[in-house]
Structures are given as structure tokens and as C-alpha cells.
Design a protein that fits this description.
With 387 residues, the protein is mainly alpha-helical. The two termini are 40 Å apart. The chain has a domain of 253 residues. The longest helix is centred in the N-terminal third of the chain and has 27 residues. It has 16 helices and 2 strands. It has a two-stranded parallel ribbon with strand order 1-2. The N terminus and C terminus are likely disordered. Helices cover 58% and strands 1% of the residues.
Length: 387
């Protein structure tokens, strides 16, 4: 038995194709539109109170965590401070920053919660994120050669991505991306895959690089220079605590995001098959390209409230992709209706606990490091030009 045989064995069975007639797609889209319109009409004080409570909790955790790290020479203080700061950074990125920048709270008219100007505590400039994520990813979800979230320009995450010897390093690249995730996200708008292919030069991305440098410099000075200096003789413990908190945030964010896009059962699409999409067909693509998480180990999402909050409710990635501008804390209740609609149309609803979904992601990363036994069909010239 060869190494290729061993690595191929855990791969998921081939996913059967799902399809909707144009009439079914229109009806499917109309039902989902009705959900969105009803929720948008119902937004109010309940939602405003929720996000303000989350922001208050995040700030309390950050201030408390940083204060405890100043006494980090005592192990219980260091552990508590690092944990609190790590959770604060997770909340800032996942439940606050990501969701606010989607415009989920623009209806409140609060300048501090405006998706167009919000800035978050991470290396990626918010304006670049709004383009690469809110526009590119959510418009062209799982379309190979269009959605740069398929591999982040670093990994091979689909058999439709042509294999090259570079991808033998897939598992190594994936691990580095996980522990350095904020920097991987920061480089997203750089389009490294196009630079490697010679389509553009690094000089073409001068403005993007300037924005990344300014934001990364600010974050680095804050966490690794300013706060350690304020701690005086306790600087090494503050430095280590900040680094560990950032690592916590990076690993957690990576796991949640990859489990929402790449576990067994998620599908990718070609440029050709998504041309002239109707609204219902766009919903159909969002559904097939996403997956939900029910919790760490549980298969019952209602039993994992804090898990969902810490994931930014991206544990309901299906609902997020269907309704990216609806406050994410609403996705749990919406999911019941979405699942029922999928059942009636004979469509899959990909959902499972974190350990199961992440295990399948890891298997995919390893399997796709190797060349395909049957080469994927080449893209047509028309498709390449459209990309």
C-alpha cells in the first residue's frame, strides 16, 4: 500500500449532485427572501441591547485581562489575564468586528457601529477586509478562480485547483496560516496567487502593502512594545501573555472559518455554471458552499450558547451566507426554518460538531497536497478570461 492509498482512504465519498429547476430555484429564493424581509422588519431594541452587551463584555474582559497581566509574574494572574485577553480578542474579531463590518447594525444609526468605518483589533485593515470578504467572498462564494477564500491564495482546498509541486507543502502552509491567521487575513487582498502566477507584480499592490504595513505596525507596537513597556519589570510576562492571546484568537478563528467552508460535503463551483444566476440560484450556491457547527462535541446547537457567541455565530455559516446583513445572533432561530425549507426541496443541510467538521478539513488539506489520480478538467479559455 502506498502513501497515496493511505491518505486517500479517509476522504469523503463523492457528494451526489443536487439541482433545482429554474422554477424550483425561484420558489426556493422567494421563501428565503421572505425570511430575510420578516427579520429585517423586526429588528429593534432586542438587537441593539444584544450587541451593546457583547461590546461591554469584550471591553471588560480586555481591561481586566491586561490589568491581570501586569501581575503576570504570579502564574494564576498570568493564566487568568491571558485567557481573558484572548477571549476579548475573539469577541472583538468574531461577534463584533466581522458582524458590524457586514452592516448588520447600520440600521441603528450609531457611528460606532457603522459597518463602513468600523476598525477592528487585528492586523488586517478593515477597508481591505470589506472588499476581499464582504464583496469578493460573499458575491463569488466558492467559485474557483473568483473566491480567494478558497485556499487564501496559499492552500489547495479544491480538486478544481490545478495541482503543482508547490502544494506538497499544503499541511505545513495550513499550520502556519492557522497560528499566524491575522497576518494571513491581512495579506488576503495582496492576491499572492496572482503574483506567483506572474499575472501582476508586487509593485501593482503598493497601496495595499502600505495599508497592511500601517495596520500591522500599529498592532505590533500596541501588543508587543507599548503594553510591555508600561509593565516595567513585568514586561516579559505581558509580552508573552499578549502573544498567547493573539495565538488563541488566531487558532480559534481559523478553525471556525475553515469548518464553515471546507468540511466534507461542501462544494465548489465553476465560473461557467454560475453565469446569469437568479436570486434563488445564488441562495442555492451559498447553501452548498457552507457548513454549520453544532458545538464542540454536541450535535444539538441549542446546547452551545457560548460556543456560538465566541464563534461570532459563524457556527451558523449557512445562515450567514444566506443572510450576511442580518444580525448574526438571529441565525440560530432562522436555522430551524432554513433546515425545514432544505428538507422540502431535497437539499442538504451540512451540520456537525467542531471535532467532526475540523477532522474532515484536516483530511482534505492532506489529501489535496497530493496530485489527483484523475486530473481535474482544465478550465476553458473563456473561463480563464472571465477570471
Amino acid at each position: 500500500m502506498t502513501a497515496h492509498d493511505i491518505l486517500d482512504r479517509p476522504a469523503a465519498p463523492e457528494v451526489r449532485p443536487y439541482s433545482l429547476t429554474p422554477e424550483q430555484a425561484d420558489a426556493f429564493g422567494a421563501e428565503l427572501d421572505a425570511i430575510r424581509e420578516r427579520v429585517i422588519a423586526d429588528l429593534g431594541e432586542r438587537d441593539a441591547t444584544y450587541i451593546r452587551k457583547v461590546i461591554k463584555a469584550q471591553r471588560t474582559l480586555e481591561v481586566g485581562g491586561r490589568a491581570l497581566l501586569f501581575g503576570g509574574v504570579f502564574p494564576p494572574f498570568w493564566l487568568a489575564g491571558t485567557t481573558m485577553l484572548g477571549i476579548a480578542k475573539i469577541l472583538d474579531n468574531m461577534e463584533i468586528g466581522h458582524n458590524v463590518m457586514h452592516g448588520q447594525y447600520d440600521w441603528m444609526g450609531d457611528p460606532a457601529l457603522s459597518g463602513k468605518v468600523f476598525e477592528w483589533d487585528t492586523a488586517c485593515p478593515a477597508d481591505q477586509w470589506r472588499h476581499s470578504h464582504n464583496y469578493m467572498h460573499h458575491t463569488y462564494t466558492n467559485i474557483v478562480d473568483m473566491d480567494r477564500d478558497i485556499g487564501y491564495g496559499i492552500l489547495r482546498m479544491s480538486e478544481d485547483q490545478r495541482w503543482s509541486p508547490y502544494f506538497l507543502g499544503n499541511p505545513v502552509y495550513a499550520f502556519l496560516l492557522m497560528v499566524l491567521f491575522q497576518y494571513g487575513v491581512a495579506l488576503h487582498e495582496l492576491e499572492t496567487e496572482r503574483i506567483r502566477a506572474g499575472e501582476i507584480s508586487i509593485a501593482d499592490k503598493r497601496e495595499v502593502l502600505r495599508g497592511i504595513w500601517q495596520k500591522t505596525k500599529k498592532q505590533t507596537l500596541k501588543d508587543y512594545v507599548a503594553f510591555p513597556l508600561l509593565a516595567g519589570p513585568f514586561a516579559p510576562w505581558v509580552f508573552a501573555g499578549n502573544m498567547t492571546a493573539n495565538l488563541m484568537r488566531n487558532v480559534w478563528s481559523y478553525m471556525i472559518i475553515f469548518c464553515g467552508h471546507f468540511p466534507d460535503g461542501t462544494q465548489e463551483f465553476s465560473i461557467e455554471e454560475t453565469k446569469s444566476e437568479s436570486r434563488g440560484q445564488w441562495y442555492f450556491r451559498q447553501l452548498l458552499g457552507s457548513a454549520n457547527l453544532t458545538g464542540l462535541f454536541s450535535r444539538r446547537p441549542e446546547s452551545a450558547k457560548w460556543f456560538h457567541i465566541l464563534s461570532g455565530n459563524l457556527s451558523f455559516q449557512i445562515e450567514h451566507h444566506l443572510f450576511p446583513d442580518i444580525p448574526a445572533h438571529r441565525h440560530a432561530e432562522i436555522s430551524v426554518e432554513v433546515r425545514e425549507i432544505c428538507r422540502r426541496y431535497g437539499l442538504p443541510y451540512n451540520s456537525g460538531p467542531l471535532h467532526t467538521q475540523f477532522g474532515s478539513v484536516v483530511r482534505k488539506i492532506v489529501r489535496l497536497a497530493l496530485p489527483d489520480r484523475t486530473p481535474a478538467p482544465r478550465r476553458t479559455d473563456d473561463a480563464a478570461q472571465a477570471a
